[in-house]
Amino acid sequence: MMTWHRIIRYTMIFTSYFNMNSEANCRRIAFIEQCFGASGQPLALPGRALVGEGVLTKMCRKKPKPRQFFLFNDVLVYGSIIISKKKYNRQHLISLEDVKLENVDDEMSLRNGWKIISPSKSFVVYAATATEKSQWMSHIRKCVNDLLLKRGITQNSENDSPVWVPDSDASTCMHCKKSQFSLINRKHHCRKCGMVVCNACSNQKWLLPQQSSHPLRVCLTCYMQLTKSKNMTGVTPTPVHDDTSGEDTSDEEDDDRTDGATGEAQDDTFTAYDVIN
Ligand SMILES: [Zn+2]
Ligand SMILES: [Zn+2]
């Protein structure tokens, strides 16, 4: 039988379905729980099994970064790597019944990528090889389909969160197309469409419950659309006009924020894995 400890660098390992409720699987889940420590939530649940795991490069706001991913039969879990195969933090958990995948075409050094789309978070990840990409995608799809079938539900993509346009893709505001970004004129992300916009073009907020319990920054185009659909459905208004600080701290809620604290460990990991070569 395959031992979980023989994991090769950034190679993912998938277990077959008949193997799932084995003692080895339970032990592995307990170990992963321990790797996240107090920063994570309990991962061992009745009926939950670990299907696969590995390192993927996740496109963050400023640059791509390695993240450890765990595919369970009902959730996708990922986190930042503190010590490879031993210690992770910043755990994110996405329910698979909401997950949709979309192919991303290769572009220079960024190859073997695809989008992971969900209401709470959407982003692009890259695998080390084309084979790994297709394995990841097919395993995720199989888990999603099995889950939908089991629960007798279909997916809804209306409330999916946008994939954020990377900061580097915009030197001017994507809304007014005039405002040049600088140290003073900061970049902001619309939480509805993911575009990089200036402060003036995103001075409205809207409650997007799938993403946060607080109203989030939206661009003027999305604000108009949201207002229009609100008027049509007669839903209670949720816009928030006061942008108290002008400083959008929630813009930093991306994975980039805490990386500073563990900067060295992150850089070491990135070099060691060398994922995007
Ligand atoms: Zn603008
Ligand atoms: Zn928008």
TrEMBL record:
Comp. bias intervals (Acidic residues): 245-257
Gene Ontology MF terms in the entry: phosphatidylinositol binding; zinc ion binding
Domain PH, chain residue ranges per copy: 49-145
Domain FYVE-type: residue ranges: 167-227
Signal peptide annotation: none
Pfam families: FYVE, PH
Region (Disordered): 233-277
Keywords: Metal-binding, Zinc, Zinc-finger
A GO CC annotation given for this chain: early endosome
GO BP annotation list: endosome organization; endosome to lysosome transport
CDD domains documented for this protein: FYVE_PKHF (cd15717), PH_Phafin2-like (cd01218)
Listed name of the protein: Pleckstrin homology domain-containing family F member 2
Taxonomic lineage: Eukaryota, Metazoa, Spiralia, Lophotrochozoa, Mollusca
